[in-house]
Design brief:
Elements (H helix, E strand, L loop, with lengths): L3 E5 L3 H12 L4 E4 L3 H11 L3 E2 L3 H4 L4 E6 L6 H10 L3 E4 L7 H14 L3 E3 L7 H12 L5 E11 L8 H4 L2 H11 L5 E7 L9 E8 L2 E8 L1 E13 L2 E6 L5 E5 L4 E4 L7 H14 L8 H20 L3 E2 L4
Parallel strand pairs: 1-2, 1-4, 2-3, 4-5, 5-6, 7-10
Antiparallel strand pairs: 7-11, 8-9, 8-15, 9-10, 11-12, 12-13, 13-14
Helix pairs in contact: 1-9, 4-5, 5-10, 6-8
């Protein structure tokens, strides 16, 4: 039998993984405890499935797994998958505790397995364009960066916005500059439920660069926006459409950067498979995912203690 890629969890994101793996020509099998999901995936994509994910872990033909399940289950299921000798792409956040994230990274390394995390904006051509501009010095001195990450979500009693949504903006900062903020402050609030922040504002600094992250689950407009302001140029990016406009301060012109939008999920999955098969360097690996959890934990601590915190180097 041909080698199989398994997808554990076929909710909103899991179905996207199934669709893109099919487009890449992978042989698939899924696991989902919900009969309706199994039926839908079978009818739409022609992919067979099982209810118990452990059946995929014990299947010797399954060599790689996408895990797309609730955040609180990430550590347990990913650990079991790595122990079973499977390469894993785990949707963000890697875990809900830094100590658990480190444990997964060490386990994958000891087993010589690929552990990738769903930091999908690393595969976004607009974000990559911004990184090119940062690396080339096109901005001149960079003054500030602002990320706006908002939309109206239902009430999630088992999630808070920092751990669930924060992984993306924090990772974009890390991807652009190759480092994390040196200090951080965070305020947040709960509005519609007993606990778990639904909106948060995070401020930080990298050298003299000011960093501002706005995250909200109570703002009706869905916004994924990046602005980088420099002494020579400013870039405005819609991270969803990947539309990228550059303002040149000297010429006083605003022009389209001509970015061709990428299929971020497909690139992410293709990269995962190539890391396994062609030994490509994994630039969305578990160590990066673990570092994002560490930064989020410090932001959460800042929120709880109501003070600016330094981010220690490790």
């Amino acid at each position: 039998m041909n080698k199989l890629v398994g997808v554990i969890g076929t909710g909103y994101w899991g179905k996207k993984h199934v669709d893109e793996y099919k487009q890449l020509g992978a042989n698939l099998i899924i696991a989902d405890p919900i009969e309706e999901n199994l039926k839908l995936v079978k009818e739409k994509f022609g992919v067979d499935g099982v209810k118990n994910y452990k059946d995929l872990l014990s299947n010797p033909d399954v060599y790689a797994l996408s895990i797309c399940i609730p955040n609180e289950m990430h550590f347990k299921v990913c650990k079991e998958a790595l122990e079973a000798g499977k390469h894993v792409l785990l949707e963000k956040p890697l875990t809900l505790k830094y100590s658990e994230a480190v444990e997964l990274v060490k386990l994958a390394k000891s087993k010589k397995l690929i552990l990738a995390v769903g930091h999908i904006f690393r595969f976004n051509n607009a974000i990559r364009k911004a990184k090119e501009m940062v690396d080339s010095g096109e901005f001149g001195r960079i003054y500030l960066l602002k990320l706006t990450w908002t939309n109206l979500e239902p009430i999630w009693n088992n999630r808070d916005i920092l751990f669930d949504l924060g992984a993306h903006p924090f990772d974009i900062v890390n991807f652009l500059f190759g480092k994390n903020p040196e200090e951080i402050s965070c305020i947040g609030e709960v509005f519609r439920k007993p606990f778990g922040e639904e909106a948060a504002f995070v401020n930080g600094k990298i050298g003299h660069i000011l960093i501002n992250l706005e995250m909200s689950w109570v703002t009706p407009e869905k916004t994924r926006r990046l602005v980088i302001v420099g002494e020579k140029k400013t870039v405005f990016i819609d991270c969803l459409s990947q539309e990228t406009k550059v303002f040149d301060l000297a010429a006083k012109t605003l022009t389209d950067a001509g970015v061709i939008p990428s299929n971020t999920i497909r690139l992410e999955l293709e990269h995962f498979l190539q890391c396994i098969e062609k030994k490509e360097i994994n630039f969305a690996d578990g160590a990066i995912g673990a570092e994002m959890i560490r930064i989020i934990e410090i932001a959460k601590k800042s929120l709880d203690e109501k003070k600016v915190l330094k981010i220690p180097k490790i």
